[in-house]
Amino acid sequence: MSFSNTYGLLFEVTFLHNYFLNNGEETFASMADADKEKMLQQFNTDAFTEITPTLETNIVIRNHRMLFKKTKTGFGVYIRVKATDESDPFIKVPIDLNLKFLIKINDYQFENYTNLDFAFTQAYLFSNVKPLTEPVSFKYLPLINDNKLISNDYLVSEETTVDLISTLRPSEQQNVFGIISLNLQGDNSSGNIIDNLGKMTSPNFKIHFDNRKTLWKYINRKAGTEIKTNAVKPLTRSGFVEIDPLTDFTPSQPAESQYPNPSVKSITKINSDYYSEIFI
User: Fold this and answer.
1) pLDDT in tens, 169-179
2) Any idea where the domains of the chain sit in the sequence?
């Protein structure tokens, strides 16, 4: 007699980033489905992040017959289910079970092209449960169909950050950008992974980063001149943003002038403004 184990999706977390998915000034959200699929085929979270279960979560995953599976757009967690009902876990799991995953950045230019502020003493928290040390304005981890981008609102307080980091093993505590912390039942039913009957709801959570927009400063070293755009322009890996010499600068520039797009390597912050520097 042979036995086979059946696994069902417990939940998944999808990562998106507009720097990689937008096409110049055309946003990923506005694209037709076929164009979105083309952009996603070239997208891989490994380009900018390393996502791993914490060591404690790895133990929980093994003990509850779960599997952690990475994908190009994030990861999924699967659990062994009953052969007669693929929404019913084979091993009953407590609704307050918590799973944590570390987000570490592996691209030194991530800060340049991502529309976020970065603080050494604070981490980003993506969770379906509000920590006691956070205010009622705490932002919960969005679902895949939520039209929400990750902002500085997901940056938790220093107190909460210390509490979160203290739950990690010493070897895990360095260079933590963010933590995904999920209970099987969240503060709101929309964030539940397991319903009140213990059945899986298999939600797809989403972490969608926005691309940074900067003022583009063109520097002519030979002539000793600088001009900058009147408004911020998007930084994207794909596509080209057209610069209109007559309307994008004050004073306007000769109509025949051409201006290249910047790379993400040379960015400076002056007061609250970000500048991309292009040497011409």
Assistant:
1) 999 999 999 99
2) 6-209, 213-279
